[in-house]
C-alpha cells in the first residue's frame, strides 16, 4: 500500500506539558471575524504557517489517504483507530506526518484493551465492542505502544500561536462531549491561556470565537455524523481558519469492511455511516 507524503518544512516548535508549573505565555489582544458562508475564521495574529488539523480518523484509510493538503505542520487530535478496519496504515501515517498527536478515547481503549460494554445491538458503543478486538489484532506491539503513550493534552507554540491540543475537553480529555456552543466552552476554558484550542471527539466541525481565544474542531476524517459523507479536516493558514471536506473513495472503505471478519449487522451499520455520513438510529 502506497502512503502519500505530506510536504512538511523543518521548523522549531516549543511545547509544554499540562502539569508545567507556570504558564510562559503572555496575554495577547486578538480581533476575530467569522465568515460563516465560506466556513472560514479570520484571526488577526502574526502567524504565517500552514497547519493541517485532523481528528477522528477511526481506521478509515481510504478517507485519510484522500487528505493530501500541503502544509508546514500536521497535528492530530486523537481517535486514530476503531470502528473502521484498517488501523495500521492510519497509525503509521500519523506517526510519520504529525508533529504532535494527543490520545483519544478510542486510542486509549484499543491500546489498553479496555472492555467495551454495549447496551444492546445498536449504537456506537455496540460498534466499538464489535470492532475493538479486530482492531487490536491488526495493530502490532509498536503501534499499540504508540497509542498508549500519547499524551492526553499538549500545549504548543507554533509561529507565535499558542495552542492547546485535546481530544475531548480540558476538564475531561478523553470522554466529554462539548458542542460548538459559546457558553459551554467558556466554562471549560477558564484558566486556559492560549490563542487556539484544537479539539475533536464530537465528529462535528466548528470554529468558535470566545473573546480572546478560538476553539476549532476539524470534524472527523473517517466516520461522519453530520449527514455529509466526505472526509472532514481543517486548515490554519496564517490568520485564516478553514473547515474543509473532501470526497474519498467510499466504496473502497465499504469493500474493506465487507471483507473483514465482522458480524453482518456491524458491516451493514458501518457501510451505512460511510455512505450517508450518519446513522439515523444511532
Describe the fold and architecture.
The protein is of the alpha/beta class. Helices cover 27% and strands 22% of the residues. It is built from eight helices and 13 strands. It has helices at residues 61-65, 87-97, 105-112, 124-137, 141-148, 182-188, 250-259, 264-276, and strands at residues 14-16, 32-35, 40-43, 50-54, 73-76, 100-101, 153-158, 161-166, 196-198, 206-210, 213-217, 231-237, 240-246. Strands 2-3-13-12-4-5-6 form a seven-stranded mixed beta sheet, covered by helices on one side. Strands 1-7-8-9-11-10 form a six-stranded mixed beta sheet, with helices on one face. Helix 7 (250-259) runs antiparallel to helix 8. It is globular, with a radius of gyration of 18 Å. It starts with 13 loop residues before the first strand and ends in a 6-residue tail after the last helix. Mean pLDDT is 85; it is low at 1-5 and 8-38.
Amino acid at each position: 500500500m502506497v502512503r502519500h507524503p505530506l510536504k512538511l518544512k523543518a521548523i522549531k516548535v516549543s511545547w509544554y506539558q499540562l502539569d508545567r508549573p507556570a504558564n510562559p505565555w503572555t496575554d495577547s489582544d486578538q480581533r476575530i471575524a467569522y465568515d460563516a458562508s465560506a466556513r472560514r475564521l479570520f484571526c488577526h495574529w502574526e502567524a504565517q504557517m500552514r497547519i493541517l488539523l485532523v481528528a477522528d480518523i477511526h481506521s478509515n484509510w481510504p478517507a485519510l489517504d484522500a487528505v493530501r493538503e500541503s502544509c508546514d505542520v500536521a497535528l492530530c487530535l486523537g481517535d486514530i483507530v476503531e470502528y473502521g478496519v484498517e488501523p495500521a496504515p492510519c497509525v503509521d501515517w500519523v506517526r510519520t506526518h504529525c508533529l504532535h498527536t494527543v490520545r483519544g478515547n478510542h486510542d486509549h481503549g484499543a491500546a489498553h484493551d479496555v472492555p467495551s460494554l454495549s447496551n444492546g445491538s445498536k449504537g456506537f458503543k455496540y460498534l466499538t465492542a464489535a470492532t475493538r478486538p479486530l482492531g487490536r489484532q491488526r495493530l502490532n506491539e509498536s503501534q499499540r505502544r504508540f497509542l498508549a503513550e500519547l499524551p492526553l493534552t499538549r500545549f504548543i507554540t507554533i509561529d507565535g500561536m499558542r495552542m492547546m491540543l485535546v481530544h475531548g475537553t480540558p476538564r475531561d480529555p478523553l470522554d466529554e462531549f462539548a458542542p460548538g456552543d459559546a457558553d459551554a466552552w467558556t466554562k471549560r476554558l477558564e484558566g486556559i491561556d492560549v490563542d487556539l484550542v484544537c479539539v475533536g471527539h464530537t465528529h462535528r466541525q466548528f470554529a468558535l470565537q470566545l473573546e480572546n481565544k478560538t476553539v476549532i474542531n476539524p470534524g472527523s476524517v473517517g466516520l461522519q455524523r453530520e449527514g455529509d459523507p466526505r472526509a472532514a479536516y481543517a486548515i490554519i493558514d496564517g490568520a485564516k481558519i478553514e473547515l474543509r471536506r473532501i470526497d474519498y473513495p467510499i466504496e473502497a472503505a465499504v469493500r474493506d469492511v465487507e471483507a473483514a471478519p465482522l458480524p453482518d449487522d456491524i458491516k451493514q451499520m458501518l457501510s451505512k455511516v460511510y455512505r450517508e455520513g450518519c446513522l439515523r438510529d444511532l
